[in-house]
Amino acid sequence: MTREVAHYQQFEAALSTIQPNFPPGILQSDPRYSNLYFNMSDGAEVRGPWNEGQSTQLREEWQCIREPIECIRETQGLQDMECEGTDRTEETVQQMDRQLREERSREINEAVPTGENQWSEY
Fold first, then answer.
1. In a 3-state reduction of DSSP, which class is residue 60?
2. Beta strands in 33-73 (DSSP E)
3. Do 85 and 61 form a contact (C-beta atoms < 8 A)?
4. What is residue 103's predicted lDDT score, i.e. its pLDDT?
């Protein structure tokens, strides 16, 4: 899912000129990976708001990995990747997860009528 958060932010920035644009969602991700852009081109490098500057949702600085294979080898398949370009940490993400879980639980409990409930009457 974390890779999808990075892709989501890249696509959102690239599509920002198309209106109406899709609404942003609430996604939690691993801060080590949510701002990585892997240059998979064969020698060419294209930069734009989808891979440089700050990401649109998390306001993290994009980290452009120019040598993806080398990066994967050096970080043991990204397991040893260090957080860069972000203030988020594993601890702050866990705190945000707890807050979001409580908020969603409260919203659901407030929306569900008290007493016996059933989804169908047939």
1. coil
2. 36-38, 63-65
3. yes
4. 81
